[in-house]
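User: Could you check the structure of this?
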Amino acid sequence: MDNQEFRKQAHKIADWMADFIESIEERPVKSLVQPGEIFRELPDSPPPKSENIEAVMDDVNRIILPGITNWQSPNFFAYFPANSSYPSILAEMVTATLGAQCMVWETSPAAAELEETTMNWLKEMTGIPQGFGGVIQDSASTSTLVAVLSARERKSQFSINDKGFISNVFRVYCSSEAHSSVEKAVKIAGIGRSNLRKIEVDHQLAMDPDKLEAAILRDIKDGFLPTCVVAAVGTTGTVAMDPVTPIARICKKYGIWLHIDAAYAGSAMVLPEYRYLIAGIEDADSYVFNPHKWMFTNFDCSAYFVKDTETLIRTFEILPEYLKTRADSQVNNYRDWGIQLGRRFRALKLWFVIREMGVEGIREKIANHISWARELASQIRVEPGFKLFEPQNLALVCFAIVPDKVKDVEELNRLNLDFLHSLNSSGKVYLSHTKVGGAVYLRMQIGQTNVERKHVQNAWAFIKTESLKYL
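Assistant: Sure, the predicted structure tokens are below.
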């Protein structure tokens, strides 16, 4: 392919992109293919000779698209959003064209300095203290791992990086509702699953600070080293909110690294009225939220903030001769701020989004999502045969159908899972589920970039109609 052919195909694919986005609402939200169906459509061997892009795009339409779950549909209400937007897509096109590998400042100065700038913008936009340094990681899971590794090295005075584990007496704490990435992080960090203490939660599914302190004191008495606490500002199951201020006070008292996981909820901090949820952040060591969830920026873009950048860099830096440059002492080399050496130019799409939408535009979208979720919750609350999970937080609504004739919990769970499957297999909506206290609830998050109130209300009407088969 030469430049002339590239120009021709790029224009055609740009039109295809716009057509796809324009028609996405007409497509099934959840892919309806069966396991192995796509695989059987694909050739067993690669083509020996060149094929034209038209043929490739024909197969995209014929084979690939039926196997795509349309996360960008306004009828996507499952999991948490993994948002896209027009400015973010355009930035991804520019990023792919530049093809930069942004491991150190010298390999693309603009990438490093734009990343520093956009992270400073996010601090101002969301109320994060200016004393924190910021870096873009690929996901909140990676950010949590980075926090656990930093906490491990600070507690061991950086000896594990040099000598490995001589003895493992480290303890990490999170709530019983925390994301599975915490458990994965302690496994990867060598601390081990058995040294992760899951703290009981209160009636709102938030970590109980008194139980946390009691667990820390028991561990100290037994000769363990309390190393890191991960507080969730918005759990995955129900968006429960751990109380940051008392947890931060406990961590400060015992010299424990406090990492705050606000992967989803952190975007809501663009609304000043929700910043009370991160009160106490000034005493935390690290904090993460994902603009790729609810700030309309394509995956992957995870904003990780750390108070002690020196500890972060000492944990991860390595400087072979071939990476040394004359600018090293004057700049941020972000390859030392995390796990990967190679880094994508992630800041560009975030910059595009913030500039094209403006802070006010981002606030308006998020405020609407929260408002529509509250309206939906109020409707479910009074609907016969439905049970709303409360408290309802931000833009997530959890509910279950509860027919009068069904009293057994397991039977009720099976019924709700069957109901969920019926909804999702329709192609009209896509929801996910969670389990609280042994009971299954359906999760409906309202946060897709182009969702409107009518989509939420249409989904609720469809859910009510479908529920008649089960009530």
